[in-house]
Please model this.
Amino acid sequence: MALLSLKNLRVSAGEKEIIQGVSLEVGEGEVHVIMGQNGSGKSTLLSSLAGNPKYSVSGKAVFEGKDLLALKPHERARRGLFLAFQSPIEVPGVSLASFLRRAYAARFGDEMSALEFDKILSAKAEAAGVARSFLQRGINDGMSGGERKMSEILQLSVLEPRLAMLDEPDSGLDVDALERVGAAIGKIRKNGMSMIIVTHYARVLRSIKADRVHVLHAGKLAASGDERLAHKIEEKGYGWVLQ
Ligand code: ADP
Ligand code: MG
Model:
């Protein structure tokens, strides 16, 4: 049985139907990449699966054998569905460490003292190549693009979702930051986490092997294939896929 199964999923905001019948199966441990022109609905698809109340969703979405659409956003997170935002929000007053402690408790139902949690967090931070001082900063407060992404990577590594949805983890990064973020995602992936990664660039695939690559166009899947599809799009653009 697939970890996530979408059948004829439709997502609207007000009168506008943004996702117009998407069917997709993500198996246990699989990595799927979604590409597509700006405005094709990639962020909307991920955001609606996470339970963003802005969207009304119809069709079928089954996660771990449960009807995903019947679950509230926090229940989806607790079951291991994680969305990393394309433009992460800033929460200046809350340190990354205390945010992660609360998120950990919500995910695993395990309330820990700050001291106990610090042990877990320190190990995760070290593995992700994140300095301890970074953990005391406000969430995304004054962080550079690369630091924001590393803060998300750390969230991934602490919350250990079953399915991580990453919306353009490579946006706005310089070449070196891209390498770091890619390598960190690749490392976390080793524990068999499933992923849906939205990206414009085949570069991500240097550190993470994708099982399937899909092209979303005007709210529908226009093509699906293996990694060669991503490389061909990078080389030739989207025109040939959409013909
Ligand atoms: P992508 O991530 O592929 O660039 P989006 O999912 O962000 O595309 O947006 C797809 C389309 O849906 C765009 O035309 C966008 O303006 C529209 N859209 C997204 N969210 C809303 C919303 N809450 N209300 C109205 N239109 C929206
Ligand atoms: Mg987007």
Q: What stands out?
A: The chain has a mean pLDDT of 91.
